[in-house]
């Protein structure tokens, strides 16, 4: 058995790059097939099959329908050198790196589409795992790789269900990257919470006896307006957004039922708690003011993504060598961003979630194509998007390989993580489990 200093070794790095380049046509085919067959969260049956078949054919041991989720999977590879160590009773010396493939699409009215480019995230995960595997094999290196297929990132967060089942335990690091109209390593990715609010009143005739009714729509409108007023006193980095999903059956009936969806975001756990508390006060006050009762169902809580400095700087270095041009860190951190259940993973194990530019390869930010738009659906199947995806995958694979083989690197990552996310962190209350009903 031999060990390399890091993926800076030219032969090791070339093995990773060549392994990914050799699969470019097959990876593009997988990406296009998933793009042409968009599926919503927890319904990614086609994507689940094509991804698991692909990675299994390339030497990974695959568990389909993993963690009691129909469309989740985990694919594992243990190098021969690692197997030998395990057989000799030294399994504690085998490090494990995880990569993630997302696969769900977004709804557009009656249609669906990959408006966040999860077809590309799917193949970035495949390519990262494959590149790392080949380098381990060719150089007789010690390491274990796990590729996770995670459903429903756009809705309630399959990664959260997987965390609760222990999916990410034992990893030294877990990484993924996401398409965007910019190349950014130091993303300010917000937390997000989502809830359904339902108000219950009493129906009556809107003309003959409106005074006998209790208007649930009044409560929902009161909540909507209250949330709009709260926005001015939240931090400029926080967000609150709301839609009314049911406003009553007919104009001549005092509505006895109304409902809405509310989402709230922040850059830190403390601000997340403040925004959540403000939302709850408004929602409950609307019920009290109108005489209605209220049911609040929490549907998702994604944590902000902490950036592991060691992983981020290593990925940035490798991708810069591959031609990615980054803006200064302060500019990267100031760019607007969304939220992801990868934040929850990165509070369990060290992780990163960089984004890569699928509009151009020369570093320019293109604001004409934004995530969650029809334009992004079209861009996510282009040759440029594919090339950018594989470039990012090479950066992840090289970084992941260093987690496995570079002496001291995994320890430094862990130390940084434990300082960022101390055990017994008080943020747990702000991020309660899904499906909590108040």
From TrEMBL:
One of its GO terms (molecular function) is dipeptidase activity. It comes from the Eukaryota. Transmembrane segments: none annotated. InterPro entries: Amidohydrolase, Bact_exopeptidase_dim_dom, Peptidase_M20, Peptidase_M20/M20A_hydrolases, Peptidase_M20_dimer, Xaa-Arg_dipeptidase. Residues 193-288 form the Peptidase M20 dimerisation domain. PANTHER family: PEPTIDASE M20, XAA-ARG DIPEPTIDASE. NCBIfam families: amidohydrolases (TIGR01891). Belongs to the peptidase M20A family. This is Peptidase M20 domain-containing protein 2. It comes from Linnemannia elongata AG-77.
């Amino acid at each position: 058995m031999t060990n390399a200093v890091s993926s800076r070794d030219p032969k090791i790095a070339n093995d990773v790059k060549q392994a990914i380049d050799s699969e470019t046509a097959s990876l593009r085919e997988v990406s296009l097939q998933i793009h042409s067959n968009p599926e919503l969260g927890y319904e990614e049956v086609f994507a689940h099959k094509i991804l698991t078949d692909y990675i299994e054919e390339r030497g990974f041991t695959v568990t389909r329908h993993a963690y009691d989720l129909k469309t989740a999977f985990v694919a594992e590879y243990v190098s021969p050198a690692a197997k030998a160590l395990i057989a000799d009773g030294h399994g504690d010396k085998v490090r494990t790196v995880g990569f993630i493939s997302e696969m769900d699409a977004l709804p557009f009215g009656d249609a669906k589409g990959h408006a966040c480019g999860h077809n590309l995230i799917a193949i970035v995960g495949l390519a990262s795992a494959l590149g790392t595997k080949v380098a381990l094999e060719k150089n007789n290196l010690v390491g274990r790789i796990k590729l996770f297929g995670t459903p429903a990132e756009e809705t309630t967060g399959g990664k959260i269900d997987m965390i609760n089942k222990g999916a990410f335990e034992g990893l030294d690091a877990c990484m993924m990257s996401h398409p965007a109209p910019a190349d950014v390593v130091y993303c300010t990715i917000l937390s997000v919470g989502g809830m359904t609010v339902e108000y219950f009143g009493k129906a009556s005739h809107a003309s003959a006896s409106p005074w006998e009714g209790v208007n649930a729509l009044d409560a929902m409108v009161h909540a909507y307006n209250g949330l709009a007023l709260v926005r001015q006193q939240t931090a400029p980095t926080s967000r609150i957004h709301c839609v009314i999903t049911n406003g009553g059956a007919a104009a001549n009936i005092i509505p006895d039922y109304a409902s809405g969806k509310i989402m709230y975001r922040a850059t830190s756990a403390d601000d997340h708690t403040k925004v959540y508390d403000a939302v709850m006060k408004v929602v409950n006050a609307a019920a009290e003011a109108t005489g209605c009762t209220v049911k609040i169902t929490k549907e998702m809580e994604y944590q902000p993504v902490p950036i592991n400095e060691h992983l981020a700087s290593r990925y940035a270095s490798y991708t810069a060598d591959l031609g990615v041009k980054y803006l200064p860190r302060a500019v990267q951190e100031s760019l607007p961003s969304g939220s992801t259940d990868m934040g929850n993973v990165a509070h369990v194990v060290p992780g990163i979630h960089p984004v890569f530019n699928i509009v151009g390869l020369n570093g320019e930010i293109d604001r004409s194509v934004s995530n969650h738009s029809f334009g992004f659906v079209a861009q996510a199947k282009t040759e440029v998007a594919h090339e950018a995806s594989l470039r990012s995958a090479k950066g992840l694979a090289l970084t992941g390989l260093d987690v496995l083989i570079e002496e001291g690197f995994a320890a430094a990552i862990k130390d940084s993580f434990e300082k960022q996310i101390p055990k017994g962190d008080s943020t747990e209350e702000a991020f309660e489990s899904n499906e909590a009903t108040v």
